[in-house]
Specification:
The chain contains 13 helices and 16 strands.
């Protein structure tokens, strides 16, 4: 076997073990060996390498079926930190997470001006403030990871964020020049899907659909993210569902799904019918709970249009499971059966759908988890 192949195998084994510790929180060497198929000697050697780097700790003994209690392994979670940012069209959220992906600090700011320079300047101010909160630790800031509601190409360049009007923005290079740490960027739908997949690894064919100011989507097939040739295979919010629409979508097309099924659609539609406008989706939910007739009519249209788009996704992805992430539907869970009833499925006749347990944190947790895994991946190759 070539030396390069041996190194690749060793690197892969290191990542297999560190992911197991990261996913389990606490786990014994013997259990790692059982779950991964790696022999005990290999596991012990690699664990020693990680402990020598001060990235894995031995904790109190675990339960035993007899004999000596096993020593449990856990990540040295406070050995380093990462910053994640979820750049939305109305708000930017930031978190500071430790190596166990536990959020230890957070902040946010509203998007009052869609200009890239304005948002970028405020983003850097918030990042600077989070960096100041990092306590002394061996590895400090290990990276910055961004979740973006737009089209990101395979080189990490923001090609288009329709709602903000951003085109061909290389924010990754700008942040790398400023902070001198690895910078990661991906579409929020992809990051949410990757995070949900870690919760439901039994579903190798999985679609995660998020509804907020925009429609975001991430698709897993064969256990891998579906990106497409140029990286925007998941842009389902801009699939056409109404060829007769005369209003132009922010992307430049007409009749996009996002025009009928986003939180922004609900707010704009109800405000057209009211003398006193509402400010956000929670206000719309309150109107529904109070049986406002205009809000109920708009909600019915929303359900019908959501069902059309869901039917399209079911037919072209044929996912085993769809995870739906929507503040509206989380707040009004009785809507889910109504949505499924309206979804036409002449072939499959049924589709399993779950509501996300992660909520609005799914993309930002996915972003920070990505930075953590990349940190360990870099170390595992050395």
């Amino acid at each position: 076997m070539k030396i390069s192949q041996t190194k690749d195998i060793r690197s892969a084994n290191r990542m297999t073990i560190i992911r197991r510790i990261l996913d389990r929180g606490q786990i014994s060497r013997a259990r790692i060996s059982e779950e991964t198929g790696l022999n005990k000697a290999t596991v012990s050697t690699i664990v020693r390498e990680w402990t020598d780097l001060k990235l894995v700790d031995e904790t109190t003994p675990g339960d035993s079926n007899g004999g000596r209690k096993p020593i449990l392994l856990t990540l040295a979670s406070k050995a380093g930190y990462c910053i994640a940012a979820d750049i939305g069209v109305s708000r930017v959220r930031l978190t500071l997470a430790d190596l166990q992906n536990t959020i230890v600090a957070k902040c946010s700011f509203p998007v009052t001006e869609p200009s890239f320079s304005v948002i970028y300047d405020e983003l850097c101010i918030q990042i600077d403030q989070l960096i100041q909160t990092i306590p002394p630790c061996p590895y400090g800031l290990i990276g910055i990871s961004l979740a973006v509601r737009g089209i990101i190409d395979l080189d990490g360049v923001i090609r288009f964020i329709p709602k903000l009007g951003w085109h061909n923005v290389d924010i990754r290079s700008l942040l790398a020049q400023r902070y001198h740490v690895p910078i990661y960027i991906d579409n929020d739908g992809n990051l949410a899907a990757a995070m949900e997949f870690r919760l439901y690894p039994q579903y190798k064919e999985l679609t995660v659909l998020s509804i907020s100011d925009v429609i975001s989507c991430g698709m897993i097939s064969g256990g891998q993210l579906v990106r497409g040739y140029l990286g925007f295979a998941n842009a389902v919010g801009h699939h056409t569902i109404n060829i007769r629409e005369t209003r132009q979508c922010s992307c430049g097309k007409y009749g996009c799904w996002e025009q009928y099924c986003s939180d922004q659609y609900l707010i704009e539609e109800i405000n057209r019918r009211r003398s006193s406008p509402i400010a956000g989706i929670d206000d719309f939910i309150s109107l529904i709970k109070h049986q406002d007739p205009d809000a109920l009519a708009i909600l019915n249209d929303f359900i019908q249009n959501l069902a059309i788009g869901l039917s399209n996704i079911i037919f072209f992805m044929n996912s085993e499971m769809i995870i739906l992430n929507s503040h509206l539907i989380h707040s009004l869970p009785y809507l889910l059966p109504e949505i499924m009833k309206a979804t036409v499925l002449p072939i499959t006749h049924s589709q399993e759908i779950l509501l996300s347990a992660l909520g609005e944190d799914a993309p930002i947790l996915g972003a920070s988890r990505h930075a953590i895994e990349e940190f360990f991946q870099i170390l595992s190759t050395h």
